[in-house]
Amino acid sequence: MAGKRDIDDPRNSLLIHASKLIAKAKPRAVLFENVPGALAGDMRTIWDESVKILVKAGYHINFEVLSLNEYGIPQLRKRVFLVGVLKKAAPPLAAVLNREPALTLGAVLKNAHKHGSSDLFSAFREDSNDWAIAQRIGPGMKLCDVRAGSRSVHSWQIPEVFGATTSKERDFLEAVMRLRRQVRRRRTGDADPVNISLLKDVFGSSTNGLIESLAAKSFLVCTGDFVDLKRRFNGKYRRSDTDSHSYTVDTSFGNPRYFLHPSENRGFSAREAARIQTFPDDYIFTGSAKDQFKMIGNAVPPAIATKIASVFRSSLR
Fold first, then answer.
1. Domain limits at 35?
2. Counting beta carbons within 10 angstroms of the beta carbon of residue 19, is it exposed (0 to 12), middle (13 to 18) or buried (19 or more)?
3. pLDDT of residue 202
4. pLDDT band at 205 (very low <50, low <70, confident <90, very high)
5. Same domain, 84 and 29
């Protein structure tokens, strides 16, 4: 789902190739794990083709999206799991897996620093813009110009980094933020540039001056009759709450510009990320910080793998 989202990218055929290999090797059971985006849009055609290959080879298939925090994994991680069993009914995971509450992030991270291996992390200098931004991001919050609500900190609320704005300019930016999602021009995506005429209905003759001023301050971009926010990412500097669950651990989890430690202005260490992924502390990761976070972020959490393995064992018996 990343990048250009080209359905013809040969990497998208990996699932089909894996299914063809399974059809030839005929193992008693098969398990696929992927992001829910594998079931969305054009990508669904690849998933459906893979299922057809497996069914034709004699596998009974079941697949479903699981929220792993419902099964003891302390992060907001949704994944689609496909279970296939040769010539036998495939177990419905959501119905047979043992549900259990996940620990809070604070409980998971307790004393993680005492385990010396995999303790690499990135921190901000106190004289940096990153530090100034992080100072403004509270638990459960993120830097985000495209969403309203108390969890989003907007760039115009951090003048020491992004520059000062007047109250009228801030009202204008918030109007653009709302209208870009309310008045749609395309069928895809979740927002569109705003027609300047809509803004003139609210701000009248001051509209053009506000657009010019905010574009000069790098808050807006203007193309023809349309204007949009310049910073359109849905969230950076996400700070988890120690009393809740972590954000999804991925390969960029060690980058503090994406994920902030819940109580310090730094990124998570590799050991902390491994804890959230339910790796035991005696599991050693080696290589550079980038390599370690790639291994940790791409992994299926061992705790959910254990639960699914138990289901397979019962099913195959």
1. 10-102
2. buried
3. 94
4. very high
5. yes
Residues 137 and 241 in one domain: yes
Indicate if 84 and 115 belong to the same structural domain.
no
User: What one-character DSSP code corresponds to residue 33?
Assistant: E
| 307 within some domain | no
Average pLDDT of every residue of the chain = 93
Structure tokens at 153: 């900190």
Q: What is the pLDDT of residues 213-258, one digit of tens each?
A: 999 999 999 999 999 999 999 999 999 999 999 999 999 999 999 9
In a domain, 83, yes or no: yes
DSSP class per residue in 188-243: SSS--PEEHHHHHHHHGGGHHHHHHHHHHTTSEEEETTEEEES---S-BSEE--TT
Predicted TM-score (pTM) above 0.70 = yes
Sheet with 226-229, edge to edge strand ranges: 194-195, 226-229, 220-223
Residue of 44, 120, 97 whose CA lies nearest to 304: 97
Residue 172 has pLDDT above 70, yes or no: yes
SS3 content of the chain, % helix, strand, coil (to 5): 40, 15, 45
Sign of CA dihedral 163, 167, 169, 172: positive
Secondary structure (DSSP) of 38-86: GGSTTHHHHHHHHHHHHHHTTEEEEEEEEEGGGBT-SB--EEEEEEEEE
**For residue 217, what is the domain's CATH number?**
1.10.10.10
Which residues, 6 or more positions from 164, have their beta carbon under 8 angstroms from its beta carbon? none
Which is it for strands 238-239 and 259-260: parallel, antiparallel or unpaired? parallel
- Six-digit token string for 2: 């990343």
pLDDT tens for each residue of 123-146? 899 999 999 999 999 999 999 999
- The answer on pLDDT for 154 being more than 70 is yes
* Tokens matching residue 134: 């992080």
